[in-house]
Amino acid sequence: QDCFYERGDVFFLSLHQWPHYPGTGAAGDLGRGKGEGTTLNFPLPGEIDESMWFACFEKGLEAVEEFNPDFVLVSSGFDSHREDPLGDFPLTEKSFERIAQQLVTLSGGRRGMVSFLEGGYNLNALASSVSSYLQGQL
Description:
By secondary structure, the protein is α/β, with parallel strands linked by helices.
């Protein structure tokens, strides 16, 4: 977030458990200067249900669509899987497949989408979630 906070040419969207390490990403963090309005954080409680998580995700995708980026970079945090020891989110393999499908729809007609592995600390859940995420991109 800090890298792009004052840039108007990059839109930063984050859905993350709050409060959680590192404690950044408050809802009021919206960017500064030329970057004002190009940061959108959804600090969510760990006990949120999947439908509410997706409601926030879809609201975020609408904001990204309005920004109209040339391409989409995704920091894929699989520690939001319900079996991950680090987080408390309710996501499953099917959730990650759905996320990928929605991101592909968002990035369609642009130069593309690149995903980076960010987190996931239950290796079995990580492997199956990444597989589902990739399947969702097909």
